[in-house]
Task: structure prediction
Amino acid sequence: MTEEEWLVCASPNEMLETLRDAANQRKFRLFASACCRRLTPHFKDECSLRMVEISDLFADDQVSLDELNAAFDEAAVAQEAIHLEGGDAVDQASAEAVLGLREGLEIGQVFEGVDEVAGALASAAVWELIHRPGRHWRETEAECQEVEEAGASKEFAVLAILLRDIFGNPFQPVAPNPAWRTDTVLALARQMYESRDFSAMPILADALQDAGCDNEDVLNHCRDTNQPHVRGCWVVDLVLGKE
Result:
């Protein structure tokens, strides 16, 4: 993959293949957790969310492997209960996705769950489209096909954006400058990292600029109002000295 392809790629699978030999497991895990957090509205039990939270802490060496395994066991039991109780496709796929956050991280399982959720939601939209009053289903067949195909691809395009938020541009790595790490910069970065509230990113950009940072990639990433940020954001990691 070239740098130009990386910057516009909408397939996180292809992007991960590019990173496979260079990226560390912490960032892989934080990305997988970020994918699962997008399924939070569909979690039917606290165990799934706890698995995601424990996975984040495990990535930062804040909980033990035993605690991760215990959270996984609880999430697996909850997922099985959803299955036995006849939960719908979205419920089941969401619960299954978080099981990919196990010890031997299975991003493929996370992606599979995300794909199933997106497909199920798209199918529901298609169902409503077909039964729109006054329209025969044959008149909407092509439109339904388009909705079904767009469902998963749209979600994975968002995940590709999150992947770039975490890994930045591997073709143009930015070296950390100790001078940027003023008290204000560090305080802002730590607060956002811990709270997962990244609304202060533009303020971080101002603080970095005041500290002498003139790197356009860093400043633009902070100030881009269309860029979502998650734990592991490459600029915040750079400031905090996380790898």
Observations:
- The radius of gyration is 20 Å.
- Residues 3-167 form one domain.
- The mean pLDDT is 88.
